[in-house]
Amino acid sequence: MIGDQILYEDNHLMAINKLPGQITQGDKTGDTPLAELVKAYIKERDNKPGQVYCGVIHRLDRPVSGVVLLAKTSKALSRMSKALQDRNFEKHYWAVVKNAPPQPAAMLENWLVKNEERNKSYVFGAARPNAKLARLEYREVAVSTGGYHLLDVNLLTGRHHQIRCQLANIGCPIKGDLKYGAERSNPDGSISLHAYKLTFVHPVTHERITITAPNVEIEKMFNI
């Protein structure tokens, strides 16, 4: 299964098209995380006798799909983690929403506070204790025959549930996202948020790389 999800691989990095429901790292559910699935796949595929290294560079929420970048060496993990900290990544998402956004394109800037107990973030208009500044850009790119709107989201900061929370705050909860105001869930428990493009500078070759992840359901829905 993991072999079919590989979007990019070299000696240093591997990019996976994560499925909804897969977890990037271990959590309290005890389900096998993506990093462990990748380790097992590489060990079997390459017939490796020892331990396989697989470092998680960034995460996607469990119900979200799309590009996840993993490090195959500790050097790659260290360099890519710093690049992520320095915001030298470009992350684009497709978000399917029921309501048209107030403007066809805009920058959203809010202060978000994470509630640990509810595993949910809340929007505030000004700085306050424990709040983190969240910024994203969106533009509407298509409307489906069923009246859903497709937004291209450029994520500028990486806060907890940021896209979900900020879009809900402008009246555009993501399709299937009951936690942030969607009317009904998706049949498979996913939400219609897909990380479709990731651009970064390779940690060893210094080449600028763009990885795209297909999503057949969204592509079909909007004829793209």
Properties at a glance:
224 residues, alpha+beta, 11-stranded mixed sheet, 5 helices, 11 strands, 34% strand
Tell me the strand percentage band: 25-35%
Helix content: 10-25%
The dominant shape is: globular
Distance between the termini: 26 Å
Largest sheet: 11 strands, mixed
Q: How are helices and strands ordered from N to C?
A: HEEHEEHEEEEEHEEH
Task: Describe the secondary-structure layout.
Blueprint: H1 2-5, E1 6-9, E2 13-18, H2 34-45, E3 55-56, E4 65-71, H3 74-85, E5 90-97, E6 105-115, E7 120-124, E8 132-143, E9 149-155, H4 162-169, E10 193-201, E11 208-212, H5 216-222
Parallel strand pairs: 4-10
Antiparallel strand pairs: 1-2, 2-4, 3-4, 5-9, 5-10, 6-7, 6-8, 8-9, 10-11
Q: Can you walk me through this structure?
A:
This protein is α+β, with helices and mostly antiparallel strands. The protein starts with a helix and ends with a helix.
Please summarize what this structure is.
This protein has 224 residues and is α+β, with helices and mostly antiparallel strands. It contains 5 helices and 11 strands.
